[in-house]
Protein backbone atom coordinates (compact mmCIF):
# COMPACT_ATOMS: atom_id res chain seq x y z
CA UNK A 1 0.00 0.00 0.00
CA UNK A 2 2.89 2.30 0.83
CA UNK A 3 4.29 1.70 -2.65
CA UNK A 4 1.04 2.85 -4.29
CA UNK A 5 0.85 5.96 -2.15
CA UNK A 6 4.48 6.75 -2.99
CA UNK A 7 3.71 6.30 -6.68
CA UNK A 8 0.70 8.64 -6.35
CA UNK A 9 2.93 11.26 -4.70
CA UNK A 10 5.46 10.95 -7.51
CA UNK A 11 2.73 11.42 -10.14
CA UNK A 12 1.41 14.49 -8.30
CA UNK A 13 4.87 16.05 -7.98
CA UNK A 14 5.89 15.38 -11.56
CA UNK A 15 2.61 16.80 -12.80
CA UNK A 16 3.17 19.98 -10.79
CA UNK A 17 6.67 20.36 -12.21
CA UNK A 18 5.34 19.86 -15.74
CA UNK A 19 2.57 22.43 -15.22
CA UNK A 20 -0.31 19.96 -15.27
CA UNK A 21 -3.43 21.43 -13.66
CA UNK A 22 -4.59 20.24 -10.23
CA UNK A 23 -7.78 18.95 -11.79
CA UNK A 24 -5.92 16.70 -14.24
CA UNK A 25 -3.51 15.46 -11.58
CA UNK A 26 -6.48 14.61 -9.42
CA UNK A 27 -8.02 12.61 -12.23
CA UNK A 28 -4.77 10.66 -12.67
CA UNK A 29 -4.65 9.80 -8.96
CA UNK A 30 -8.32 8.75 -9.11
CA UNK A 31 -7.56 6.41 -12.04
CA UNK A 32 -4.62 4.91 -10.11
CA UNK A 33 -6.82 4.39 -7.04
CA UNK A 34 -9.56 2.78 -9.14
CA UNK A 35 -7.01 0.46 -10.79
CA UNK A 36 -5.60 -0.70 -7.45
CA UNK A 37 -9.10 -1.27 -6.07
CA UNK A 38 -9.99 -3.31 -9.16
CA UNK A 39 -6.83 -5.46 -8.70
CA UNK A 40 -7.82 -6.16 -5.10
CA UNK A 41 -11.29 -7.25 -6.16
CA UNK A 42 -10.33 -9.29 -9.25
CA UNK A 43 -7.08 -11.05 -8.30
CA UNK A 44 -7.21 -14.09 -6.00
CA UNK A 45 -5.94 -13.94 -2.41
CA UNK A 46 -2.19 -14.37 -2.18
CA UNK A 47 -1.48 -13.09 -5.69
CA UNK A 48 1.88 -11.25 -5.65
CA UNK A 49 0.46 -8.10 -7.31
CA UNK A 50 -2.42 -8.04 -4.86
CA UNK A 51 -0.08 -8.48 -1.92
CA UNK A 52 2.20 -5.73 -3.27
CA UNK A 53 -0.74 -3.30 -3.34
CA UNK A 54 -2.00 -3.96 0.18
CA UNK A 55 -3.49 -7.44 0.12
CA UNK A 56 -7.06 -6.29 0.86
CA UNK A 57 -9.69 -4.16 -0.84
CA UNK A 58 -11.08 -2.71 2.41
CA UNK A 59 -8.42 0.00 3.03
CA UNK A 60 -8.63 1.12 -0.58
CA UNK A 61 -12.42 1.22 -0.47
CA UNK A 62 -12.27 3.37 2.68
CA UNK A 63 -9.68 5.63 1.08
CA UNK A 64 -11.85 5.98 -2.04
CA UNK A 65 -14.86 6.85 0.11
CA UNK A 66 -12.95 9.55 2.00
CA UNK A 67 -11.60 10.93 -1.28
CA UNK A 68 -15.11 11.09 -2.74
CA UNK A 69 -16.39 12.93 0.35
CA UNK A 70 -13.52 15.41 0.13
CA UNK A 71 -14.24 15.95 -3.57
CA UNK A 72 -17.94 16.61 -2.97
CA UNK A 73 -17.11 18.94 -0.07
CA UNK A 74 -14.70 20.88 -2.29
CA UNK A 75 -17.36 21.26 -4.97
CA UNK A 76 -19.80 22.62 -2.37
CA UNK A 77 -17.28 25.13 -1.03
CA UNK A 78 -16.45 26.38 -4.52
CA UNK A 79 -20.14 26.74 -5.33
CA UNK A 80 -20.72 28.78 -2.17
CA UNK A 81 -17.76 31.02 -2.97
CA UNK A 82 -19.07 31.64 -6.48
CA UNK A 83 -22.49 32.57 -5.09
CA UNK A 84 -20.94 34.90 -2.52
CA UNK A 85 -18.79 36.62 -5.14
CA UNK A 86 -21.70 37.00 -7.54
CA UNK A 87 -23.87 38.43 -4.73
CA UNK A 88 -21.21 40.99 -3.82
CA UNK A 89 -20.84 41.95 -7.45
CA UNK A 90 -24.61 42.39 -7.81
CA UNK A 91 -24.75 44.60 -4.72
CA UNK A 92 -21.82 46.74 -5.81
CA UNK A 93 -22.83 47.09 -9.46
CA UNK A 94 -25.28 49.95 -10.09
CA UNK A 95 -28.35 49.31 -12.16
CA UNK A 96 -27.46 49.31 -15.83
CA UNK A 97 -28.53 52.51 -17.54
CA UNK A 98 -27.60 53.94 -20.89
CA UNK A 99 -25.12 56.81 -20.98
CA UNK A 100 -26.09 60.42 -21.43
CA UNK A 101 -26.71 61.73 -24.92
CA UNK A 102 -25.55 65.18 -26.00
CA UNK A 103 -28.90 66.74 -25.12
CA UNK A 104 -28.81 65.34 -21.59
CA UNK A 105 -25.22 66.43 -21.06
CA UNK A 106 -26.18 69.97 -22.03
CA UNK A 107 -29.37 69.85 -19.92
CA UNK A 108 -27.58 68.68 -16.77
CA UNK A 109 -24.36 70.66 -17.29
CA UNK A 110 -25.01 72.87 -14.23
CA UNK A 111 -25.29 69.75 -12.10
CA UNK A 112 -22.24 68.07 -13.57
CA UNK A 113 -19.97 71.04 -12.86
CA UNK A 114 -20.97 70.97 -9.19
CA UNK A 115 -18.13 69.30 -7.27
CA UNK A 116 -20.59 67.54 -4.94
CA UNK A 117 -22.55 65.95 -7.83
CA UNK A 118 -20.53 65.71 -11.03
CA UNK A 119 -21.04 62.98 -13.59
CA UNK A 120 -21.32 60.11 -11.05
CA UNK A 121 -23.97 61.97 -9.07
CA UNK A 122 -25.98 62.72 -12.19
CA UNK A 123 -25.85 59.04 -13.11
CA UNK A 124 -27.20 58.18 -9.66
CA UNK A 125 -30.04 60.62 -10.23
CA UNK A 126 -30.79 58.95 -13.55
CA UNK A 127 -30.82 55.53 -11.88
CA UNK A 128 -32.99 56.67 -8.96
CA UNK A 129 -36.67 55.87 -8.40
CA UNK A 130 -38.64 58.34 -6.29
CA UNK A 131 -42.28 57.96 -5.23
CA UNK A 132 -44.28 61.12 -4.50
CA UNK A 133 -47.40 60.74 -2.35
CA UNK A 134 -49.85 63.45 -3.36
CA UNK A 135 -49.89 65.61 -6.49
CA UNK A 136 -51.02 68.73 -4.64
CA UNK A 137 -49.27 71.80 -3.24
CA UNK A 138 -46.08 70.10 -2.03
CA UNK A 139 -45.92 67.38 -4.65
CA UNK A 140 -46.30 69.85 -7.54
CA UNK A 141 -42.99 71.76 -7.19
CA UNK A 142 -41.16 68.70 -5.89
CA UNK A 143 -42.08 66.68 -8.98
CA UNK A 144 -41.23 69.49 -11.40
CA UNK A 145 -37.74 69.83 -9.96
CA UNK A 146 -37.18 66.08 -9.68
CA UNK A 147 -38.01 65.78 -13.37
CA UNK A 148 -36.00 68.84 -14.35
CA UNK A 149 -33.01 67.57 -12.37
CA UNK A 150 -32.99 64.21 -14.15
CA UNK A 151 -34.39 61.75 -11.60
CA UNK A 152 -34.89 58.74 -13.85
CA UNK A 153 -38.18 57.32 -12.55
CA UNK A 154 -40.82 59.33 -10.69
CA UNK A 155 -43.95 57.68 -9.35
CA UNK A 156 -46.95 59.71 -8.19
CA UNK A 157 -50.04 58.43 -6.41
CA UNK A 158 -53.17 60.53 -5.86
CA UNK A 159 -56.89 59.85 -6.27
CA UNK A 160 -58.00 63.47 -6.72
CA UNK A 161 -58.87 65.45 -9.83
CA UNK A 162 -57.71 68.96 -10.64
CA UNK A 163 -60.05 71.66 -9.34
CA UNK A 164 -60.10 75.40 -9.95
CA UNK A 165 -59.23 76.04 -6.28
CA UNK A 166 -56.00 74.01 -6.66
CA UNK A 167 -54.48 76.33 -9.25
CA UNK A 168 -53.61 79.09 -6.77
CA UNK A 169 -50.66 77.03 -5.48
CA UNK A 170 -50.42 73.66 -7.30
CA UNK A 171 -48.20 74.92 -10.10
CA UNK A 172 -47.87 71.60 -11.93
CA UNK A 173 -51.51 71.83 -13.10
CA UNK A 174 -53.04 74.25 -15.63
CA UNK A 175 -56.50 75.69 -16.14
CA UNK A 176 -57.04 73.30 -19.05
CA UNK A 177 -56.41 70.37 -16.66
CA UNK A 178 -59.49 71.03 -14.52
CA UNK A 179 -61.41 67.77 -14.19
CA UNK A 180 -58.40 65.65 -15.15
CA UNK A 181 -56.92 63.23 -12.59
CA UNK A 182 -54.01 65.01 -10.93
CA UNK A 183 -51.57 62.18 -11.60
CA UNK A 184 -52.11 62.43 -15.36
CA UNK A 185 -51.89 66.21 -15.33
CA UNK A 186 -48.64 65.92 -13.35
CA UNK A 187 -47.33 63.26 -15.73
CA UNK A 188 -47.94 65.49 -18.74
CA UNK A 189 -46.21 68.45 -17.09
CA UNK A 190 -43.16 66.42 -16.07
CA UNK A 191 -42.73 64.88 -19.51
CA UNK A 192 -43.13 68.31 -21.09
CA UNK A 193 -40.38 69.53 -18.78
CA UNK A 194 -38.08 66.53 -19.42
CA UNK A 195 -39.03 63.80 -21.92
CA UNK A 196 -36.03 61.72 -20.79
CA UNK A 197 -37.60 60.75 -17.44
CA UNK A 198 -40.08 57.95 -16.77
CA UNK A 199 -43.30 58.92 -14.93
CA UNK A 200 -45.53 56.30 -13.34
CA UNK A 201 -48.99 57.67 -12.42
CA UNK A 202 -51.19 55.79 -9.92
CA UNK A 203 -54.71 57.22 -9.92
CA UNK A 204 -55.90 55.69 -6.67
CA UNK A 205 -55.87 56.23 -2.94
CA UNK A 206 -52.92 54.86 -1.03
CA UNK A 207 -54.18 52.02 1.16
CA UNK A 208 -52.68 49.47 3.52
CA UNK A 209 -53.26 46.75 0.93
CA UNK A 210 -51.10 48.29 -1.81
CA UNK A 211 -48.59 50.43 0.12
CA UNK A 212 -45.86 47.83 0.72
CA UNK A 213 -45.79 46.51 -2.84
CA UNK A 214 -45.78 50.05 -4.24
CA UNK A 215 -43.02 51.37 -1.96
CA UNK A 216 -40.81 48.32 -2.60
CA UNK A 217 -40.21 49.46 -6.17
CA UNK A 218 -38.77 52.86 -5.16
CA UNK A 219 -35.60 54.10 -3.49
CA UNK A 220 -37.13 56.87 -1.42
CA UNK A 221 -40.52 58.38 -0.65
CA UNK A 222 -41.73 62.01 -0.63
CA UNK A 223 -44.89 62.61 1.38
CA UNK A 224 -46.80 65.76 0.52
CA UNK A 225 -50.24 64.73 1.76
CA UNK A 226 -52.46 66.69 4.15
CA UNK A 227 -54.23 63.65 5.58
CA UNK A 228 -53.11 62.31 8.98
CA UNK A 229 -54.15 58.71 8.33
CA UNK A 230 -52.17 58.63 5.10
CA UNK A 231 -49.14 60.19 6.77
CA UNK A 232 -49.04 57.49 9.44
CA UNK A 233 -49.53 54.78 6.82
CA UNK A 234 -46.70 56.19 4.70
CA UNK A 235 -44.41 56.31 7.74
CA UNK A 236 -45.19 52.73 8.85
CA UNK A 237 -44.61 51.36 5.37
CA UNK A 238 -41.40 53.30 4.78
CA UNK A 239 -39.95 52.17 8.13
CA UNK A 240 -40.90 48.53 7.56
CA UNK A 241 -39.09 48.55 4.18
CA UNK A 242 -36.14 50.68 5.30
CA UNK A 243 -36.98 53.46 2.81
CA UNK A 244 -36.00 57.07 3.56
CA UNK A 245 -39.05 59.32 3.90
CA UNK A 246 -38.99 63.05 3.15
CA UNK A 247 -42.01 64.64 4.77
CA UNK A 248 -43.33 68.17 4.40
CA UNK A 249 -46.31 70.04 5.82
CA UNK A 250 -47.96 73.45 5.45
CA UNK A 251 -50.16 75.75 7.49
CA UNK A 252 -51.10 79.28 6.38
CA UNK A 253 -47.70 81.05 6.32
CA UNK A 254 -45.56 78.33 7.85
CA UNK A 255 -44.05 75.13 6.47
CA UNK A 256 -41.80 72.41 7.78
CA UNK A 257 -39.90 69.43 6.47
CA UNK A 258 -37.66 66.63 7.69
CA UNK A 259 -36.03 63.42 6.51
CA UNK A 260 -37.17 60.38 8.48
CA UNK A 261 -34.76 57.48 8.04
CA UNK A 262 -34.53 55.43 11.28
CA UNK A 263 -32.75 52.58 9.47
CA UNK A 264 -29.81 55.00 9.11
CA UNK A 265 -30.22 57.40 12.03
CA UNK A 266 -32.75 59.53 13.82
CA UNK A 267 -36.47 59.17 14.50
CA UNK A 268 -39.44 58.28 12.36
CA UNK A 269 -42.50 60.48 11.83
CA UNK A 270 -44.46 58.82 14.63
CA UNK A 271 -41.63 59.42 17.11
CA UNK A 272 -42.27 63.15 16.67
CA UNK A 273 -46.05 62.99 16.26
CA UNK A 274 -47.15 59.98 18.35
CA UNK A 275 -50.84 60.58 17.72
CA UNK A 276 -52.89 62.29 15.06
CA UNK A 277 -54.33 65.63 16.18
CA UNK A 278 -57.93 65.66 17.28
CA UNK A 279 -60.45 66.76 14.63
CA UNK A 280 -60.48 70.54 14.32
CA UNK A 281 -57.05 71.09 15.86
CA UNK A 282 -55.24 70.83 12.53
CA UNK A 283 -57.43 72.50 9.91
CA UNK A 284 -56.79 71.78 6.26
CA UNK A 285 -55.57 74.37 3.75
CA UNK A 286 -59.15 74.78 2.57
CA UNK A 287 -60.22 75.68 6.12
CA UNK A 288 -57.23 77.73 7.30
CA UNK A 289 -55.84 79.03 4.00
CA UNK A 290 -52.27 78.99 2.67
CA UNK A 291 -50.20 81.62 0.90
CA UNK A 292 -49.57 80.60 -2.72
CA UNK A 293 -45.74 80.49 -2.84
CA UNK A 294 -45.35 78.58 0.45
CA UNK A 295 -45.86 75.09 -1.06
CA UNK A 296 -43.27 76.02 -3.68
CA UNK A 297 -40.72 76.87 -0.97
CA UNK A 298 -41.22 73.67 1.03
CA UNK A 299 -41.84 71.39 -1.96
CA UNK A 300 -38.67 72.60 -3.65
CA UNK A 301 -36.74 71.97 -0.44
CA UNK A 302 -38.14 68.43 -0.40
CA UNK A 303 -36.82 67.89 -3.93
CA UNK A 304 -33.46 69.28 -2.83
CA UNK A 305 -33.28 66.85 0.12
CA UNK A 306 -34.15 64.01 -2.26
CA UNK A 307 -31.32 64.91 -4.64
CA UNK A 308 -28.86 65.19 -1.75
CA UNK A 309 -29.92 61.76 -0.49
CA UNK A 310 -29.54 60.21 -3.94
CA UNK A 311 -26.16 61.76 -4.75
CA UNK A 312 -24.67 61.79 -1.24
CA UNK A 313 -24.06 65.54 -1.42
CA UNK A 314 -23.96 67.62 1.73
CA UNK A 315 -25.94 66.81 4.87
CA UNK A 316 -29.63 65.92 4.79
CA UNK A 317 -32.21 66.73 7.45
CA UNK A 318 -32.02 63.41 9.30
CA UNK A 319 -32.78 63.96 12.98
CA UNK A 320 -33.66 67.61 12.29
CA UNK A 321 -36.73 69.57 11.30
CA UNK A 322 -36.56 72.76 9.28
CA UNK A 323 -39.33 75.26 10.00
CA UNK A 324 -39.93 78.17 7.64
CA UNK A 325 -42.06 81.17 8.62
CA UNK A 326 -42.97 82.94 5.41
CA UNK A 327 -44.79 85.81 7.11
CA UNK A 328 -41.66 87.04 8.88
CA UNK A 329 -38.98 85.48 6.65
CA UNK A 330 -37.53 83.35 9.43
CA UNK A 331 -36.03 79.88 9.21
CA UNK A 332 -35.02 77.71 12.17
CA UNK A 333 -33.95 74.13 12.71
CA UNK A 334 -34.72 71.95 15.68
CA UNK A 335 -33.13 68.64 16.66
CA UNK A 336 -35.33 65.54 16.72
CA UNK A 337 -34.72 62.45 18.83
CA UNK A 338 -36.15 58.93 18.42
CA UNK A 339 -38.46 57.51 21.08
CA UNK A 340 -37.30 54.18 22.49
CA UNK A 341 -40.92 53.06 22.88
CA UNK A 342 -42.00 54.06 19.37
CA UNK A 343 -44.33 51.31 18.10
CA UNK A 344 -43.12 51.85 14.51
CA UNK A 345 -39.34 52.26 14.52
CA UNK A 346 -38.13 50.83 17.86
CA UNK A 347 -37.02 47.66 16.06
CA UNK A 348 -35.02 49.68 13.51
CA UNK A 349 -33.34 51.56 16.35
CA UNK A 350 -32.30 48.28 18.03
CA UNK A 351 -30.91 46.88 14.79
CA UNK A 352 -28.94 50.07 14.22
CA UNK A 353 -27.47 49.91 17.73
CA UNK A 354 -26.26 46.30 17.32
Task: Give an account of the 3D structure.
The structure is a single chain. This protein has helices spanning 2-17, 22-42, 48-52, 57-92, 102-107, 109-112, 118-127, 139-148, 182-193, 208-215, 228-241, 269-272, 285-288, 293-311, 346-353; strands at 129-133, 153-157, 198-202, 220-223, 245-251, 254-260, 320-325, 330-335. By secondary structure, the chain is of the alpha/beta class. It has an eight-stranded mixed sheet with strand order 3-2-1-4-5-6-7-8, sandwiched between helices. Strand 4, helix 11 (228-241) and strand 5 form a beta-alpha-beta unit. Helix 10 packs across helix 11. The longest helix has 36 residues, at 57-92. It is elongated and about 110 Å long.
Brief summary:
With 354 residues, the chain is of the alpha/beta class.
Low-confidence stretches: 84-97
Q: How widely separated are the two ends?
A: 56 Å
Order of SSEs, N→C? HHHHHHHEHEHEHEHEEHHHEEH
Helical proportion? 40-55%
**Largest beta sheet: what is the strand line-up?**
3-2-1-4-5-6-7-8
Provide the descriptors you would attach to this structure in a database record:
354 residues; alpha/beta; eight-stranded mixed beta sheet; 50% helix; 13% strand; elongated
Which helices and strands occur, and which strands form pairs?
Layout (H helix, E strand, L loop, with lengths): L1 H16 L4 H21 L5 H5 L4 H36 L9 H6 L1 H4 L5 H10 L1 E5 L5 H10 L4 E5 L24 H12 L4 E5 L5 H8 L4 E4 L4 H14 L3 E7 L2 E7 L8 H4 L12 H4 L4 H19 L8 E6 L4 E6 L10 H8 L1
Helix pairs in contact: 1-2, 2-4, 8-9, 8-14, 10-11
Amino acid sequence: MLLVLLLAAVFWGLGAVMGVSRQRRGRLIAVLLALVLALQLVLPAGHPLREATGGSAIPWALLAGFAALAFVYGLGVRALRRRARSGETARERPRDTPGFNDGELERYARHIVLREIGGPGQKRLKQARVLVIGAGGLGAPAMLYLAAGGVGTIGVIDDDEVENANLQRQVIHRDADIGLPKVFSAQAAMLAQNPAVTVRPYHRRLTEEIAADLFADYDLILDGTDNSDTRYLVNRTAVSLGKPLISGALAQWEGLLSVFDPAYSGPCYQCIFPEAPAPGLAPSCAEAGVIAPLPGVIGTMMALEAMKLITGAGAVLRGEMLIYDGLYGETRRIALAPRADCPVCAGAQRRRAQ
